[in-house]
């Protein structure tokens, strides 16, 4: 198994609101993920990363969107089409990949253990299997809003 070399890491501050993203409404989940990714990636030169995977990790998923859908359904109201799109965490992972020109796999997981550790383990597997050369792991939670992003690449063989 390869070790991972951490290239950049950021934690999104709870008190700061992320910039809204066109096409993502009602919830802070996707803007948090995109903001943490942007801070992490903008602080590192993107050359030489090769195929970079995007891994979204969250124990609870997008609570804001889930709540909005549940409220509409309970009230027998029409659920807006954007909520179906953004209810899948891979949607924001795809947004991040497209925004930054990342060409590796896009994966979203609900961790069984420590969220960031599970994300790093998945990144290591993607790199070890040859699916990616590097990975951006974004851990997002709501209540309270928080996000962390870590950019890694494969290191030495162990």
UniProtKB/TrEMBL annotation:
**What InterPro entries is this protein classified in?**
Ketoacyl_synth_N (IPR014030), Thiolase-like (IPR016039)
* Any Pfam family the entry gives: Ketoacyl-synt_2
Entry superkingdom: Bacteria
The region annotated as signal peptide is none
Where does the Beta-ketoacyl synthase-like N-terminal domain start and stop, copy by copy?
Answer: 26-146
Q: Which GO terms describe its molecular function?
A: acyltransferase activity
Specify the protein name: 3-oxoacyl-(Acyl-carrier-protein) synthase
